[in-house]
Write a structure and sequence with these properties.
By secondary structure, the protein is mainly alpha-helical. It contains 13 helices and two strands; from the N terminus they run αββαααααααααααα.
Length: 311
């Protein structure tokens, strides 16, 4: 018995269609095999602790004894207690220093060395500015504490130029302590922002600047109409990183001032540590941590929306 000729092409077509389906299933299985270890690690070190923090935030617990359900009392305390509100406000004040100074100076430096990216001057500038990023925050806090001391380098420099009246114990002053901490954070983040912006500016087509100069544009117009739009995404990354660093700051504040004088430099990260481990108020510390997380998300969401790629 012979096979009908028309059935041969049909069999071949079915044979050709089957392997892609199997390949697709195999590709999905392979992808899940690669994703699973990372997801398990993320769940173990991020999702589970986050869920436990949310659970603890509804409890009145000292971390050792019996835990009691406390409802929304911890959240109400966080949102109404004047001391905690001032501490949250301190973090938002640090945003001004941690964000505006590094991003502003980073833009200025990137624009200044735009034409000398591969030259010795450009490479030396990038290397020097990036050094604070590789220095441990503890070491940076200690070094700047010495510089801001009453007999430190900054006061000695002020006295040498006849500004002795400006000399003070910066980190112990109720007015200047928080700005001094902000300067430390700005110094640490300046290198990262500069490197991101310098990398981004190299992607801008140089013909745009040449055409602008031929049309008589001044450097300010080049910066406003070419550089800033071209660096929109890089600026968004810098602002996001610096805002998170300011709101979640702990190391620099703990080393330089330990939150003093009073609570003028106390930030939520430091207060969470104190509430949980010094005052044994785990529930209140967890509620403050959750509120801080929500504030971080609310702060960076508009930045991500405005700087996203709109193409």
């Amino acid at each position: 018995m012979t096979e009908h000729p028309s059935s041969v092409p049909d069999a071949r077509q079915r044979a050709k269609k089957a392997p892609p389906a199997r390949k697709s299933r195999k590709a999905r299985l392979t992808a899940w095999l690669f994703i699973t270890p990372a997801f398990l690690a993320y769940a173990a070190f991020v999702l589970v602790p986050l869920g436990m923090s949310v659970y603890y935030s509804f409890l009145r617990w000292d971390g050792i004894g019996e835990a009691r359900f406390h409802g929304l009392t911890n959240y109400i305390t966080v949102l109404t207690d004047p001391k905690l509100l001032q501490i949250i406000g301190n973090a938002f004040q640090l945003v001004l220093y941690f964000t505006i100074i590094p991003v502003g100076l980073g833009l200025a430096v990137a624009s200044a060395i735009r034409g000398q990216m591969n030259g010795r001057f450009g490479m030396a500038t990038r290397t020097i500015l990036f050094l604070p990023q590789v220095i441990p925050l503890v070491a940076a806090g200690i070094a700047w504490s010495w510089m801001f001391a009453s007999t430190g380098l900054i006061n000695q420099a002020l006295k040498s130029v006849g500004l002795s009246s400006w000399a003070k114990g910066w980190l112990g002053d109720f007015v200047w302590a928080l700005p001094a901490v902000g300067v430390i954070g700005a110094w640490v983040l300046l290198g990262l922002c500069t490197m991101l912006l310098v990398t981004g500016i190299t992607k801008i087509d140089t013909s745009l600047y040449e055409a602008a100069r031929l049309d008589g544009a001044r450097p300010w117009h080049e910066f406003r109409y070419i550089t800033l739009p071209g660096l929109r995404q890089e600026i968004g990354v810098c602002v996001t990183v610096t805002v998170i660093a300011a709101l979640a700051s702990f190391d620099i504040v703990y080393i330089s001032t330990q939150g003093g004088p009073g609570i003028t430099t106390t930030v939520p990260g430091l207060e969470i540590y104190r509430l949980a481990f010094a005052h044994r108020q785990v529930g209140l510390a967890s509620a403050l941590a959750i509120v801080l997380m929500v504030l971080v998300l609310l702060s960076i969401a508009p930045v991500q929306w405005f700087t996203r790629d709109k193409k």
